[in-house]
Design a protein that fits this description.
- The complex is a heterodimer of chains A (about 375) and B (about 140).
- With about 375 residues, chain A is of the alpha/beta class.
- Helix content of chain A is about 35%, strand content about 20%.
- Chain A contains 13 helices and 12 strands.
- Chain A has a 10-stranded mixed sheet, with helices on both faces. A two-stranded antiparallel ribbon of chain A has the order 5-6.
- Chain B is built from 2 helices and 7 strands.
- The longest helix of chain B is centred in the N-terminal third of the chain and has 8 residues.
- The chains are: A alpha/beta (about 375), B mainly beta (about 140).
- Chains A and B meet through helix 4, helix 5 and strand 5 of A and strand 3, strand 4 and strand 5 of B.
Chain lengths: ~375, ~140
């Protein structure tokens, strides 16, 4: 297996862009990543495009406007993990020696299909027939978690306060207005205990990364190349033999353990993390599953502000995360990737730059398949 | 109930080969849970290969007395789609059955605010259409 490097990243802003179809957003992100890499677009040998709801041939439609045609372009889908599944595909095709230079794209325009509210689920499952929605799936986890660990509504709200603070420093984020615990708790309840402001917004964006092999990196890289130290994708499993615990943390745990092993590193080595906080409860559970703290201590990290930029532990979601930067489904994983690459290069706004960041981790959790611990989880570890 | 049936426009579960015995039994107001003959363990979701052991296809369906406890729940103030307009607030819960498996359903016939984790519940059956009956739960006793 060869080493693989990211030599360019790019993305659009996150927001509501009903006038920009997915292929227009994706074209913008692809061009931006290629420009950032400094290589000529003709050197791209293969492309992947992650999306969920955008229809036929989005990757091809985006790249034709650049003139990148003929090479294999493969659209990939892994629910909310589609963006990082695209990255994983690009990584493995280089790592296993098939190609040397690949483009990983991710895109979603939700505004053109939804005015607001939860993502549509497949309707033929038992759980949808009794009225469960995506926020509801996270809400029942939140209820159990609060009961088991004594976590409070205020602590769930603090996750949003941190997220909005980081996003307020990120010009590309969708929700940039700082907030307070009171404001989060006073928002309408969607699925008890989650209020609207504890749920990620509907939004649109695209993001991309250019990857190359260790043989090519010396010649091609214009900026500091970022090495992919670990990259693992896992589909969901039934949570336990006797049923569903509806706990994606099991999937995040096993996927991240494999990624740490591949990288030869542990949670203590991570300086910065971009994780899948689709709902505020998710951040608490994911920081535990990634091994940043013991089970049940996710709320303590929030209380102690340890995971804020400038805190005494790994900085979590300096971009604002899904809650505030936004969660344009298929773009999310590559938005996270672009953020970690820029953090490692030292390129982000000084107020949210993690000092001396050397290693970063990306966790994306795709899907709400109620009987299982998710549809796809992808964990990547990047280093300089 | 019969008037409601005609207007029922919410999503309905699909009967797959693996789940059909569950829905057939529900229509007769019985709750059945699959068990592996190989390991003797109950499991849920229904599937073609049982978990554990050598993942045998040798599965039996066992009628349950339908008793369990609320393992966790959420009061939904917003449904997953327009079909649920006017329904909230309602309770979506994971029920831990006496057999050890968990299944998702609604807790009905109770003020949502009175539902709590650990509450003992009993299965009941909602004939939502002529073809589909949904097992739901109400407070026991």
């Amino acid at each position: 297996m060869r080493d693989v490097y990211i030599i360019g990243v790019g993305n659009t802003a996150c927001g509501r862009f009903p006038d920009k179809p997915a292929h227009i957003l994706a074209r913008e992100a692809a061009w931006s990543a290629i420009q950032d890499s400094g290589i000529h677009a003709r050197k791209i040998e293969i492309a992947f495009c992650g999306h969920v709801y955008q229809g036929m041939g989005v990757g091809q439609r985006a790249l034709k406007d650049i003139g990148l045609v003929g090479q294999p372009t493969i659209n990939v889908e892994g629910a909310c993990g589609s963006g990082t599944l695209s990255l994983w595909e690009a990584w493995r095709t280089i790592a296993y020696g098939q190609y040397d230079i690949a483009l990983a794209l991710g895109v979603e325009n939700l505004s053109r299909i939804l005015s607001g509210g939860p993502l549509p689920l497949e309707e033929d499952d038992l759980e949808v027939s009794i009225g469960m929605g995506m926020p509801g799936l996270y809400a029942i986890r939140a209820s159990k978690y609060m009961e088991e660990y004594g976590v409070t509504l205020e602590q769930l709200a603090e996750v949003v306060v941190k997220s909005r603070h980081h996003a307020s420093l990120n010009p590309l984020a969708q929700y940039r207005k700082p907030t307070t615990v009171e404001e989060v708790l006073n928002a309408p309840v969607i699925a008890d205990p989650l209020t609207r402001n504890m749920c990620c917004p509907v939004g649109d964006a695209a993001a991309a990364a250019v990857l190359c092999s260790e043989e090519q990196v010396g010649e091609l890289a214009k900026k500091m190349p970022v090495k992919i130290l670990g990259c693992v994708a896992q589909s969901g499993k039934y949570s336990s033999p006797t049923g569903l615990t509806c706990d994606p943390s099991e999937n995040v745990w096993r996927t991240s353990q494999m990624a740490y092993e591949m990288a030869g590193l542990g949670p203590e080595d991570m300086d910065v993390a971009e994780i899948h906080d689709a709902f505020s409860i998710a951040e608490m559970m994911v920081v535990e599953s990634l091994g940043f703290c013991e089970k049940g201590d996710g709320a303590t990290l929030i209380d102690e502000k340890s995971t804020w930029v400038g805190g005494d532990k790994v900085a979590v979601n300096p971009s604002g995360g899904l809650l505030s930067r936004g969660h344009p489904v298929g773009a999310t994983g590559l938005l996270q990737t672009a953020e970690i690459v820029r953090q490692l290069r030292g390129e982000v706004e000084p107020e949210r730059q993690v000092k001396d960041a050397k290693v970063g981790i990306i966790e994306t959790m795709g899907g709400a398949q109620p009987a299982m611990d998710g549809i796809t989880c992808v964990v990547s570890i990047l280093g300089k | 109930m019969s008037e409601e049936k005609k207007e029922y426009n919410k999503p309905l579960p699909e009967f797959r080969p693996e789940t059909k015995p569950f829905w057939d039994a529900a229509k007769e107001h019985k709750l059945v849970i699959p068990r592996s003959r190989e390991t003797g363990e109950f499991f849920f979701y229904p599937r073609a290969l049982s978990p554990g052991g050598d993942m045998s296809e040798d599965i039996e369906w066992v009628e349950s007395e339908g008793r369990g406890k609320v393992w966790t729940f959420s009061i939904h103030h917003m449904g997953p789609s327009k079909a649920y307009k006017g329904e909230p607030p309602y309770v979506v819960a994971l029920i831990e059955m006496d057999e050890g498996v968990k299944m998702m359903s609604n807790v009905i016939d109770v003020d949502p605010n009175d539902v709590s984790i650990g509450m003992e519940v009993q299965v009941c059956f909602d004939d939502v259409t002529d073809e589909v009956t949904l097992p739901k739960f109400k407070p026991a006793g």
